[in-house]
Input
Amino acid sequence: MRILLTGGCGFIGSAVVRYLIEQTSHDVLNVDCMTYAGSAENVASVSENARYRHALVNIIDAKALKPLFESYQPEAVMHLAAESHVDRSIDGPGAFVQTNVTGTYTLLEVARGYWNKLSSERQKKFRFQHISTDEVFGHLDENDPPFTEKTPYDPRSPYSATKAASDHLVRAWYSTYGLPCLVTNTTNNYGPFHFPEKLIPLMIIKALRGEELPVYGQGKNIRDWLYVEDHAEALVRAVERGKPGDTYAIGARQPHDNLEVVKKICAILDELRPDEAGPRERLIRFVSDRPGHDFRYEIDPSHAEEALEWKATHDLDTGLRKTIQWYLNHSAWWQPILEHRYKGHRLGGGS
Ligand code: NAD
Ligand code: TYD
Output
């Protein structure tokens, strides 16, 4: 299958690109305009492969997208390009509206124009897969059941509000125009190539450097952690086997509070790279909370597991160990990011 994939130089997108090239026979055209979050190094291991191409194009640019569709003749779109960091969305929501809402609208319209001209046989087989988040469902209290595909939308941050808007657009293009769309909503990912502004890579790097570890509030907020390579496999199953009009809530059944996660990171690092100054838990600091901080996310992935014949293979301990080992071996990837690519954004919030 020829897959036009957006956002393939980012964290999850690059894991999907590597999976597609290394573990399937699909071809990939990676449409990524390289914001601060994108890096050519994330796909360096496959960039010389004849089945891989990159187009430096912004998804809000319909004039640039149209010829890409015409010349590449994709059989599927996997749409991952987005602004993805909640703290940045609080500081500057405009870029989120632009890429997540206008960008998704533009991509849908260009895909629809292209799809309209396909033979009916190719139209039936075509897929537009939209990759989204569980944050569109709002947040849960301690005893609420986990999110499912049927949970009503209740986004609470500028990031999740723009992702919710994009999910609604995609479903409307399915119902109104018949474009064969499907949506996946996934829990927090972690793993190699994760940009170090998100909790897990930030804590690994700060702990390695002996810096304070800023935990928002009391560290009681709960996230359901999915190892990125498990997610990549689920997304490829969904584009291959998913049903148009359907939604897949993807998760790993690994809910943990933030303090527990940070303590696990400290313990694994202490074992793999002992610190002469003592156990790294000493670096934990409780800092002022994120405004509107969602308390708990958790997904019940039963439908996705059954329909896609997929299950996450990493629990948090095995995934964290692999992730920490990767950051220990790849300081050449993250050092330059610390020096050049934050573009002035604060690291690790709080005060
Ligand atoms: P990321 O921020 O690491 O990467 C985003 C990529 O998209 C970057 O390579 C960037 O250059 C590219 N991009 C951004 N704006 C673009 C534009 N206008 N045109 C073209 N390319 C553009 O994001 P991620 O964490 O890999 O997330 C990928 C997708 O998965 C997003 O849609 C996100 O909402 C969703 N998601 C992420 C998580 C998570 O835990 N990270 C969880 C669930 C869903
Ligand atoms: P994050 O990785 O930003 O993902 P999301 O907000 O999309 O869930 O944050 C994960 C959790 O970690 C969230 O509850 C906020 C918290 N957090 C901290 O406590 N300290 C930090 O420095 C960061 C970046 C996040």
About this structure: The chain is about 40% helix and 15% strand. Residues 2-190+225-253+295-314 form a domain with the Rossmann fold fold (CATH 3.40.50.720).
